Amino acid sequence: MLNNKAIFLGSLGKSKEAIEYIEKAIKLDPLDANLYDTYGEVFMDSQNYESAIEKFYQALEMSPNGWFAFHTFLKLSKCYKSLSMPEEATTCYEKAKRLAEKVIPGKRKVFLNHLEESIEYLNKIPL
């Protein structure tokens, strides 16, 4: 619940409150890599891309093949693009693409659709 509340508050632009909730969640379960991914999202929502990148990499270090890794690489790509770092953005996008190709066929289409939506978004961010 704390994780979901942090996501919700972050999406509303209430990053200070969102950080409080995600930090509470991490104190309860410091080994849950998904919580660090959420922490990154909160920073990303507030356009604090450097901190978001740090938290996303923490999540990936803890669980490089976690269910959320595909989405984390897409978010990293968006952060790097927003920081005018196209090479890093492309590298992260390609990592997400490789993960999508490994997904079971029944779910692969959903992941490929996310990739397509992400590349459209990335193309709209000016360098």
Q: What are the key terms here?
A:
7 helices, Serine Threonine Protein Phosphatase 5, Tetratricopeptide repeat, 2 domains, mainly alpha, 127 residues
Q: What does this molecule look like?
A:
The chain has 2 domains: 1-64, Serine Threonine Protein Phosphatase 5, Tetratricopeptide repeat (Alpha Horseshoe), CATH 1.25.40.10; 70-127, no CATH class. The chain is globular, with a radius of gyration of 14 Å. The protein contains 7 helices and no strands. The N and C termini lie far apart (37 Å). The model has no long low-confidence stretch (mean pLDDT 87). It has 127 residues and is an all-alpha fold. It has helices at residues 2-11, 15-28, 33-45, 49-62, 69-82, 86-101, 105-124. Helix 2 runs antiparallel to helix 3 and helix 5 (69-82) runs antiparallel to helix 6 (86-101). Helix content is 80%, strand content 0%.
Helix and strand topology:
Elements lengths: L1 H10 L3 H14 L4 H13 L3 H14 L6 H14 L3 H16 L3 H20 L3
Helix pairs in contact: 1-2, 1-3, 2-3, 3-4, 4-5, 5-6, 5-7, 6-7
Given the C-alpha coordinates, what overall shape results? Answer: globular
The helix/strand order is: HHHHHHH
Number of strands: 0
The overall pLDDT average reads 87
Which percent bin holds the helix content?
A: over 70%
Structural class: mainly alpha
Terminal Cα span: 37 Å
Instruction: Name the beta content range.
Output: under 5%
Q: What is CATH's topology name of the largest domain? A: Serine Threonine Protein Phosphatase 5, Tetratricopeptide repeat
Question: CATH homologous superfamily of the largest domain, by name?
Answer: Tetratricopeptide repeat domain
CATH-scheme architecture of the largest domain: Alpha Horseshoe
